[in-house]
Amino acid sequence: IGSPDLKRHYLEMKSHVINGDRMKGLNPLFTILNNDYSIYNKSTFMLILEGKNDMIVSYRNALDFYTTMKNMGYHNIEYIDYPVGHVVTNEMENDVMIYITKHSVL
User: Fold this and answer.
1) CA angle 56, 35, 75 (to 5 degrees)
2) Which of 36, 46, 96, 105 has the fewest Cβ atoms nearer than 10 Å?
3) Which tens digit of pLDDT belongs to each residue from 35-70?
4) CB neighbours (10 Å) of residue 74?
């Protein structure tokens, strides 16, 4: 949930409403958050669902995050995109249930 690259998200989606000085002030925070992949456990399963027509959160951010994580050795991550906007569809809900069932330890 959310954007894995906060700076990019703010620049693409919020820079028109945020003062330039405030954006500069946020840069140190973005640097820390965007470069600290140690917060993710490599054994934790992650599922990313993204609408390719999302006008709120760029699907490119999610795809780049997925690619970066795969390249860093996070093998328990899956990415699925859908031809929709910023919504959760029945298909997405079904895919989440399938994913949870597939990776359930019960």
Assistant:
1) 80
2) 105
3) 556 666 778 888 989 999 988 777 888 888 888 888
4) 18
**Tokens describing residue 13:** 């989606």
Q: How far apart are CA 62 and CA 77, in angstroms?
A: 12
Q: How many CB atoms lie within 10 A of CB 60?
A: 14
Q: How distant, in Å, are the alpha carbons of 15, 24, 76 from that of 18? A: 5, 10, 36
The helix/strand/coil state of 52 is coil
Per-residue pLDDT, 23: 63
Residue 22 token pair: 């405030």
The pTM score is 0.66
pLDDT of amino acid 15: 60
The answer to whether 97 and 67 have CB atoms below 8 angstroms apart is no
Per the CB < 8 A criterion, the answer to whether 84 and 53 are in contact is: yes
Name 84's Cβ contacts closer than 8 Å, sequence gap at least 6: 51, 52, 53, 54
